Amino acid sequence: MISLALFHFLCSLTVLLLLPLHTSAGDPDPMQDFCVADLQAHTSVNGYPCKPAKSVTANDFFFDGFTKEGNTSNNLGSALTIANVNVFPALNTLGVAMGRVDLAPGGLNPPHIHPRATEAGIIIEGKVLIGFVTTANVFHSKELSVGQMFVVPKGLLHFQLNVGQGKALIYTALNSHLPGSVIVSNTLFASSPAIPEHVLTKAFQADKHTIDTIRSKFGAKA
Ligand SMILES: *[C@@H]1O[C@H](CO)[C@@H](O)[C@H](O)[C@H]1NC(C)=O
């Protein structure tokens, strides 16, 4: 005869053991084969509503945004081309997106965070230093060459720096249809409206002039 306390204990244990099975590492699973996003829809609930299935065609499932090299003629020497739900509506609800990163020699994809996705990537051309920092403030990095792969856990700060002689090309895959990108320098120094200057001088233990100088580089009004 099982006592009530033991019964409750066994129930709790069962729930605890099952818990990991119910966690999801990416976007929620879809409840249909596809849900090509209707980007013009006026409502949105954690994604986009589906375009009527009868108006979906083969072309909805193909994307040619990666065929062209990104233009790296900018201060960072880098160009990011992203295939997320906003530009490739067939990704809606499927929990996946991809990116193309072009880096000029010395080019940097600056420190940034994807709040909704883990990123996996592969070097297609060149030599790249991949680095990320854990929440325990440990920096992990490695120089990768063609064919080598990396992973950056969801939500962690990371960057990609071209350390080779020529240009570099990386393709990345992310487990969200809209991974989001928090580019730390832009977020801190070029938000709209601006973060109060006192917050930045205190956070960085820097004087007003230093903060104004950094802000001006990001096109923000001092
Ligand atoms: C690349 O971008 C630069 C700066 O915006 C521009 O002057 C140049 O024409 C662009 N090159 C191409 C091939 O689009």
UniProtKB/TrEMBL annotation:
PANTHER family: GERMIN-LIKE PROTEIN SUBFAMILY 3 MEMBER 3 (PTHR31238). SUPFAM superfamilies: RmlC-like cupins (SSF51182). Mn(2+) binds at H112, H114, E119, H158. It comes from the Eukaryota. Residues 1-25 form the signal peptide. Disulfide bonds join C35-C50. This is Germin-like protein. Keywords: Apoplast, Disulfide bond, Glycoprotein, Manganese, Metal-binding, Secreted, Signal. Gene3D superfamilies: Jelly Rolls. The lineage of its organism: Eukaryota, Viridiplantae, Streptophyta, Embryophyta, Tracheophyta. It is found in: Secreted, Extracellular space, Apoplast. Oxalate binds at N109, H114, E119. GO terms for cellular component: apoplast; plasmodesma. Belongs to the germin family. GO terms for biological process: plasmodesmata-mediated intercellular transport; regulation of root development.
